[in-house]
Amino acid sequence: MARVRSNLILEGLSGSIGKELTIRVVNGKTIISVKPGKRTKPPSEKQKAQQEKFRLAREWAKEQLLNPEIAAEYKAKCTGNQSAMSLLVGEFMKKA
After folding, report:
1. The pTM is what?
2. Which end of the chain is more exposed for a tag (fewer CB within 10 A), N or C?
3. Max Cα separation, the chain?
C-alpha cells in the first residue's frame, strides 16, 4: 500500500488502473494498493454468517451516525486512517 503526498495528478483520484492497481481516498488521503482478486469459490457457511453479521453492523453504524452527538463522539475517537463508521462497526462486531 502506498500513500500519495502532494501529487496533483493522483490526489483525490479513485478507481482502478488496469487489472493491477486500485486507488481510493480514505479520510482525505489517497491510497494506492494492489487490486484484490476475484473469489474463485462460493463462500462457506461460516463466511456467509460473518458477512451477514458485518451487514448488520454497517446498518447499525449508519443509523448511529445519523445522530449528530454520537457522530461527533466517534469522530473525536478516530486516530490515523480510522473513520467513525469503522469504530462503530468494530464495536458492533465485538458485542455481537
Report:
1. 0.63
2. N
3. 45
Domain-by-domain residue ranges, the chain?
2-34, 45-95
Cell of 16: 482502478
Q: What is the grid cell recorded at 72?
A: 461527533
Positive or negative, the CA dihedral 58, 61, 66, 71 is negative
Are 46 and 55 in contact, with CB atoms under 8 Å apart?
no
Nearest 5°: the CA angle 26, 29, 35 is 60
> In this structure, are residues 40 and 33 in contact, taking their beta carbons and an 8 Å threshold?
no
Mean pLDDT for each 10-residue chunk of the chain (96 residues)? 66 80 82 86 96 97 96 93 93 92
Tell me how far apart the alpha carbons of residues 90 and 16 are, in angstroms, rounded to a whole number: 27
pLDDT of residue 13: 75
CB within 8 Å of 7: residues ≥ 6 apart: 30
The Cα 22–Cα 39 span in angstroms is: 17
